[in-house]
Amino acid sequence: MPLQDHFHPPLSKALPWTVFHSRWATEIADELNRSILPPRYRAWAHAQLGGGVVEIDVAALREAGWEEPSGTDRWDLPAATGTAVIDFTGLDVFEVKVIYDGGDSQLVAALELVSPANKDRPTNRRAFAMKCANYLEQGTAVIVVDIVTGRTPSLHNELMTILELNSVRSEEPSLSAIAYRSRRENAHTKIDWWEQALAVGQAMPKVPMWIGIDVKVPIDLEASYMKTFDYIRVPFPSADRNGE
After folding, report:
1. How many folded domains does the chain comprise?
2. Hey, which bits of 118-239 come out as E strands?
């Protein structure tokens, strides 16, 4: 099923974005827990950390007593779209602080489904970028899925600005799925990202969720997207659903 435009008629009238957003996050978390995450890892949808200060659409957590996963890293992932060295000690813009609670669980990855409010004004875009930057500062991987049509500002560019990197580009895909990984290498912190452009009418890709420095699991956006439509039972013409 190709990506649909959730923010303009006819779909915006048949299905509120907030309803789809909630169920899609739940479907992604369910699939991670069913068959993708290794033992002692689990996923939560709509997680709140730090007394509700930070909300995450899908959080992947690692329990105490975990062992290095095996057999989960067989996906032949292309080279990173970009890599940059970050000096977090020189940055003072991380106003959102994540407090890890819930016993011995550790947040290892966060997936964010972008909403229109995340992009509609500069202060909101900066707040979203600061939240993602804080995850990376803590060593938490991040996935940002942006299918918001009609609002073109780039959240990736906003994040690059927050991190004081020279990776801001004049032309960015308006819709995208980007996976970020933070890692230590030779006393430096490096950020790698894998970017894939999305488009209405086209199938969505798999994106890597990094649950360890060298361990990733696939997030099949297309499969979870289709299951969400089936679960909600949207009154949508069959021809459109089949992309015909």
Report:
1. 1
2. 141-146, 176-185, 188-197, 206-210, 216-220
